[in-house]
Amino acid sequence: MVDTVLAFARTLRHAGVPASPDRVEAMLAALAHLRVLDRGDVYWAGRLTLCGGPDDLDRYDAAFAAFFSGERPRTSRARTTTPPRLAASAPLDAGSGEGDDADAPDLAARASADEVLRHRDVGTMSPAEREHLRRLFALLVPAAPMRPSRRRRPATRGAVHPARTVRSALRDGGEVRRLRHRRARPRPRRVVLLVDVSGSMTPYADAMLRFAHAAVRARPTSTEVFTIGTRLTRLTRELRRRDADRALEASGQAIPDWSGGTRLGEVLKAFLDRWGQRGTARGAVVVVCSDGWERGDAGLLGEQMVRLRRLAHAVVWVNPHKGRDGYEPLTGGMQAVLPSVDHFVAGHSMAAFEQLSGVIHRA
Questions:
Q1: pLDDT per residue over 110-131, tens digit each?
Q2: In this structure, are 195 and 318 located in the same domain?
Q3: Which of 45, 59, 176, 225 has the fewest CB atoms within 10 Å, measured from its CB?
Q4: Position 132 in a domain
């Protein structure tokens, strides 16, 4: 449901409806109390939360019809009283007929292109599709995992707060009428991304660095990014630039081993010796983006993954080949790392990166 609402919000923004993140959260909160498979409930939940004024209603009707039903909506306002039929996997077709809105074919085609592109393998995309994918990455906001901090805040439930309870009792003449509670205040957990930029990862390295840029943009103070290949390179400073293209251009100039060999065990050891044990990986969610091809000693890689698992809160391994039908992790590198991995996920498409964002958030 969340993925569908986010994709629908992107379609609305393309149509000119300012579906801001807070409005999307409001729609998700509304759907939590409604029947998500009922066309009327979904239609009115989105219309009452995502539209900001009367000018957005026609655009919303057109986008809803194009996204969910593949229908070509008409200009008549009578469509607002009869919501379009909700189809879970209906193809998006521009349609034809008299009285159709002139902008509807473009809207339907754009929504269809977004949905097809979200599931397309990044390594097989054309230059035009990659340009479209860049715009989708600009809309991605990965949610950070949270952890309880030592600081406490007032709450309706939780441990009793003795000081606040006593102060409240003193104001009531010394009688304890109500217990005051407190809970740990959540804080963002550090996320560390290790992106493989070796020759075997060349078709996917750009997309993975764009995901890393989106993560740094969302949480600049609690996200660290490194590239791994034949050596270790820290890219956090370069990826803090707001513009993704400029950030990746600066990263490309800082990476000396782009499309080189792969020595994952040695590079991971260098990361743990210099950064990991000093606190960067301690208690963090560590995301390794690599296909697992190891030219060095696979035994060394396995030993360093055991070290990493002791330090990290969770280890996520992202392999772009996992999204292919029939894939099995048979390489020596993958066999060495899997015993120390908490989550083994795919990283071959935009939809896979959206799922990865959810895995990191829940880790």
A1: 555 667 778 889 988 888 888 8
A2: yes
A3: 176
A4: no
